[in-house]
């Protein structure tokens, strides 16, 4: 008899708790090229995804595929170095495995980072955008199907997906660190093909400031789990439908790596304060 999803989560939680004697205050999932963005993190333990019971494998280059337990500015946190995507063939439920793991571990804060294409032409490559809200254009939802009452409500409210207090905290830290921090709307697509100029023009019309292939599944699960969510997009390229330029994964990773120190400073400052 195969194990249910929640039983798989419980077995993975037990494995981690037997090896981790701390209670993390936050969990972070890193985007493309951002696995090592927390340069101030003091690493205590590393759990490769391949060694975690039932944990899906990250298959994308630049996603390391490891769960790191460490301390950031004196606070215990967990960092998923590399995420899971719909375009890898994973179901929405499996994409949110890390979020459910954090929920079962009692972690109150979820930090989601991603590498995104800029649609707002006031943005520049290397800028950071605080995700104020998102548009789910994937056609998927991790809550579809029978509801698991242990995880959350059947119909969770989505009017405040990204916690306003954490957002204000991030804005304050960015100001102190002299980092420009935009605030905008993230559009989540399924990928992996990049946007056509016509699609980019459509995204701009409906109010998106940045676009990517992640984050929305995890954010929905995080709301379902009643977690406080902070979302940050690192803008790796600008999508101008009137002057389209080709981009590559290598260019995205390079831009993300160069700008990740700014993310480190913002997240370090946010995590310093309790939720």
UniProtKB/TrEMBL annotation:
Residues 29-271 form the Nucleoside phosphorylase domain. One of its GO terms (biological process) is nucleoside metabolic process. Keywords: Glycosyltransferase, Transferase. Its EC number is 2.4.2.1. Pfam families: PNP_UDP_1. Pathway: Purine metabolism; purine nucleoside salvage. GO terms for cellular component: cytoplasm. GO terms for molecular function: purine-nucleoside phosphorylase activity. Gene3D superfamilies: Nucleoside phosphorylase domain. PANTHER family: METHYLTHIOADENOSINE/PURINE NUCLEOSIDE PHOSPHORYLASE (PTHR11904), PURINE NUCLEOSIDE PHOSPHORYLASE-RELATED (PTHR11904:SF9). Belongs to the PNP/MTAP phosphorylase family. The purine nucleoside phosphorylases catalyze the phosphorolytic breakdown of the N-glycosidic bond in the beta-(deoxy)ribonucleoside molecules, with the formation of the corresponding free purine bases and pentose-1-phosphate. This is Purine nucleoside phosphorylase. The lineage of its organism: Bacteria, Pseudomonadati, Thermodesulfobacteriota, Desulfobacteria, Desulfobacterales.
């Amino acid at each position: 008899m195969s194990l249910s999803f929640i039983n798989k989560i419980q077995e993975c939680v037990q494995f981690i708790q037997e090896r981790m004697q701390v209670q993390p205050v936050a969990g972070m999932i890193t985007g493309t090229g951002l696995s090592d963005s927390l340069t101030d993190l003091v690493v205590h333990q590393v759990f490769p995804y391949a060694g975690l019971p039932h944990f899906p494998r990250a298959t994308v280059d630049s996603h390391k595929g490891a769960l790191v337990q460490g301390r950031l500015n004196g606070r215990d946190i967990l960092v998923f170095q590399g995420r899971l995507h719909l375009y890898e063939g994973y179901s929405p439920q499996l994409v949110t495995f890390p979020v459910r793991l954090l929920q079962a571990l009692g972690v109150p804060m979820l930090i989601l980072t991603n590498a995104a294409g800029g649609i707002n032409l006031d943005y520049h490559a290397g800028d950071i955008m605080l995700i104020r809200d998102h548009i789910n254009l994937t056609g998927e939802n991790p809550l579809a199907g029978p509801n698991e009452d242990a995880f959350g409500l059947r119909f969770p409210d989505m009017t405040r997906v990204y916690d306003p207090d954490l957002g204000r905290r991030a804005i304050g830290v960015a100001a102190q660190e002299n980092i420009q921090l935009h605030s905008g709307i993230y559009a989540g697509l399924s990928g992996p093909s990049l946007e056509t100029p016509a699609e980019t023009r459509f995204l701009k019309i409906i109010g998106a400031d940045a676009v990517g292939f992640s984050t929305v599944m995890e954010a929905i699960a995080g709301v379902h789990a009643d977690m406080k969510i902070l979302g940050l997009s690192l803008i790796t390229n600008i999508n101008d439908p009137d002057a389209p330029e080709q981009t590559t994964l290598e260019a995205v990773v390079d831009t993300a790596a160069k700008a990740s120190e700014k993310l480190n400073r913002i997240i370090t400052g946010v995590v310093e304060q309790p939720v």
